[in-house]
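Issue: copy button drops trailing tokens. Both records pasted manually instead:
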Amino acid sequence: MKLLYICTYQFIFKNGFPCTVPAYGDGFWDQFTESFDSVDVIGEPLRDEEHTLTIPITRKDINVSIIPANARPFDIRNDAEVKKQLETAIMGCECVMIKIASRKANMAIKLAKKYGKPYMIGVTGDLYRDLITSKSVLRRLYAPIIYKQSLKTIKDCKFGTYVTQKYLQSMYPIEGMMCGYTDTLLPYVKEEVLESRLEWINGMQNREYIDLGIIGTYHDNRKGYDTAIQALEKLNNPRVRLRILGVGTSEDQHYWISYGMDHGIKNVIFDKPVSGVENVFKWIDSIDISILPSRSEGLPRSIVESISRACPCVISNVCGMPELVNEKWLHNPEDDDKLAELLSKMIEDEGNMIEAAKENFHRALDYTLDSVRKKRTAFYDAFKEYVNSLKK
């Protein structure tokens, strides 16, 4: 059975291969190809080619098409062409998964209903919170409109996947079967990782620097870089550095470095982007505390990967984040005072870091591939059974 997958992921063709950011490379699509023969992906053009690390999708069972973007309010000019291309793809498909909460998604769901195509939705983030916390007045005004439209469109959906266990299900409920599983696949969670982390913590006070790490795009402020820098200012510890691993332009880097300087923080460092989960793990192993003071999230890949490396984490309490770490290490978004307080408790008390490392490591066991696969396969089997029942 072939699956059509409609999303807002960004792609570009190079040397005949579709290329995308490392998070959506070959391995990402295993979650679908374990249950479906192949996947036809409809994505969007890569917006920042010059400064974005991309890797090719080389596997033959993944076929990528790129159509115009229409996620942002002013992209409405693309709607007619988007609808035309979606209609062609959906008319010819066997079944479809639609990553929701955009005009494109709402169009696709309506077309799937029109042509009687079995579909399921995929919910990977909270678009409403993403928009309502934006600096853009237009995006904030748009938030309740697209949220209301999305809720109405998905209400009678029969199958939906969610990257959280509870939060996104409560925000984007459907009448049908809802399955919560992360799309961040941990290949393993090994006991020696915890042992290495505990040794790392024991040596922290002897190292020149204490490294806080954020993984995520820095092209905008959804990840809360301002909150992190303001917390470092209040922490007032010259040994503490902020290291950032993510996607953005040189202008974005200059902005945040200047923002840090304005707040008396000289140690804002942008590490070179890496590809492949093993290289991400190595980077996490080189930091002391993983932070993510986000204004909006789904279930962040970076924190799932961090807890799998037994890395102590201090994160905001938005969306699915409370599912990942002990509540004592959560803070409200934009609360730099609380973030500074929690970081101080970590840095000044080795016992807190050891306790957090152990708790995080054992929680990560719920996100291993083996743990996720059984639930995921059962869900897709039920969907395929439904698809086949419609053919009779």
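Record 2 (pasted manually too):
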Amino acid sequence: TEQAEIVKGVSGGISRKVEDLDAPRWVIHPSAGVSTPGVPTLFISDLHWGETVSPSQINGVNEYSIKIAHQRMITLVDAAVHLLHIIDPRMRYPGIVVPLGGDMISGNIHDELTATNELNSMPAILDLYGVLVGVITSIADRFGRVFLPCVSGNHGRDTRKIWNKDRHATSFDWLLYRFLAKLFEQDKRVTFFIPDGIAAHYKIYSHRYRLSHGDKHGRGGDGIIGMLGPVIRGDHRTRSRDAQIDLGYDTQIIGHFHQYTHTGRVIVNGSLKGMDEYAYTEAFPFESPQQALWLTHPKHGITYRMPVYVDRKRAVPRTEWVSIPQE
């Protein structure tokens, strides 16, 4: 639309049209004669940058602030590299895919967030921009090549309700991605894909992925199956619709629900902030702050899959496997 083009002009013209898929060759074609574990994907979403989580209000099980967010992002990159080094000590990866899945900032969509956020939306974007520049540069230096498909979430919007029309043009997530793409425009190691629509469709080798934030999957989970109900129903609807319009996919990847789940057909990301006051009050299952990491093999599809924990482990009392009281 005209408004979107104005915003793109403000963020700076980009010679490579990032709204059109132009996946680098290494993502689709395996290197001839080289045996590798495949292409790793590190899914980054639901950072909620600028939000605070008060430990005193959730029985001390978690805490979140700008300082902690910075620490967790460093841990995320270091831990992901460490895990991939364990899988292949020679690090024979052709590159890495890093989807950015939305809810990058906390935003002001609720009164309680407006009252308690450590940073408002624009300062949060500026701070996170600097952090992601460092993250992308570090990953590019380590893996040689980076492909970043990007979609917006629901928290970064500047409207009262999420828009279906011009969703991207009303999202600070999208603006953040555009500025990052502009900065890395001349770095041939880095490729962005920022579609105008709600989802990004791309392939790693022959495995087809659909990336969206997940907020359109609806509600309806309960205390037994949790978020699996809306996630599976949402995937069924989109899978059926996309198959009818020649956009069939093998695996859908989403964030939004803050509960790491990997079923093969659907990958749900965790969050960087971890449990907050809302999740604690609603008695949602506890989950340590984490992000999803997996490998896509040219022959076998998704193989290794693992969460990347971004917080220090809580001390666990050591007990023997079998303990017999002594008289």
